[in-house]
Amino acid sequence: MTKTRFERPVLPKDATDEEKRKAMFDALYSLDLSDKLERRENDKLSYLSWANAWAEFKRAYPDATYRIIKDANTNLPFFNDSAIGIMVYTEVTADGKTYEMWLPVMDAKNKAMKEQPYTYQVYDIYKKAYIEKTVQAATMFDVNKAIMRCLVKNLAMFGLGLYVYAGEDLPNDETMPVEKEEQKKQPTRRSRAMTPSPTAATPQQSTDKYSGIRTALSLCNDNTSLMNLYRQHQTEVEGNSEIKALFTERKNQLKAA
After folding, report:
1. How confident is the model at residue 236 (pLDDT cuts 50, 70, 90)?
2. Of residues 63 and 170, which shows the higher confidence score?
3. Confidence at residue 212, expressed as pLDDT on a 0 to 100 scale
4. 145, exposed or middle or buried, with CB in 10 Å at 0-12, 13-18, 19+?
5. What is the chain's mean pLDDT, rounded?
6. CA–CA separation, 130 and 119 (whole Å)
7. Which of 171, 173, 172, 195 is nearest to 183 (CA)?
8. Is 90 helix (H, G, I), strand (E, B) or coil?
9. Residue 71 dihedral angles phi and psi, to the nearest 5°
10. Structure pTM?
11. Which of 5, 28, 219, 222 is deepest in the core (most CB within 10 A)?
């Protein structure tokens, strides 16, 4: 049963430390944070702000502490690799337990940001052509935002808001956006699945313009992978009711499984 306010679990006096930690995890995991979730402008995804997350966590663990991990060579709160991007790390300690978490610095489309701007290509299904997009160079504002997002993700390791990351915040049928572009350069396994192979085309693929998307959705065997696919492309294919229906269909299939 979910609760709107944290209540410390009542345990027998002889409860072990492990039993106490499990009870606290369950209490935090079942906490209903729906009234504290926020949305970025033009974003369909919900998120928990660091201020709300830390306030709720401190109610559960008044002595909790966190640490932003710095690069020992630069004393800066991020680790930079010019080839692949910038990563931030945090540590949270509560009740004698410490968890570490990491997060890349990303732009609004969840593309990794680097110290220099770079371009990539996506396929625009409306223009029927590949178009070039630019990821701007990261700023300290972007780094700071990533650090605080990383902290919230770190707190989820103790149970607080973990369901948000588990895909249970998957939008309902009326609000789920869908995909409209596909990445071209160095695609991941998911983005490859989104693009039909010209050498392996089947009769259905030649007539079904969404065959690649169907394939990608069929590879999603749980809500987490479906949510990851949705998040990966949620800003790229908005407004297409046909693809929206495919996502909804897969979501309902997973529910019924």
Report:
1. low
2. 63
3. 64
4. middle
5. 77
6. 12
7. 195
8. strand
9. -70, 120
10. 0.62
11. 28
Report residue 143: phi and psi, to 5°: -65, -45
Joined together, the tokens standing for residue 196 give: 């039909």
- Quote the tokens at residue 11: 């345990």
Tokens 């770190």, located at residue? 154
Residue with tokens 């345990």: 11
Q: Please report the beta strands in 82-144, taking only residues with DSSP state E, as ranges in sequence order.
A: 85-94, 97-104, 118-124, 129-135
Residue 105 has pLDDT above 70, yes or no: yes
Among 71, 75, 73, CA closest to 88 = 71
**Dihedral of the CA atoms 48, 49, 52, 55 (nearest 10)?**
110
Distance, CA of 220 to CA of 228 (rounded, Å): 9
Provide the pLDDT for residue 15.
Answer: 86
For 130-180, write each residue's pLDDT tens digit.
Answer: 999 999 999 999 999 999 999 999 999 999 988 877 654 433 333 333 333
Give the H/E segment covering residue 37.
Answer: strand 37-39
Beta-bridge mates of residue 132: 121
177 close to 238: Cβ distance less than 8 angstroms: yes
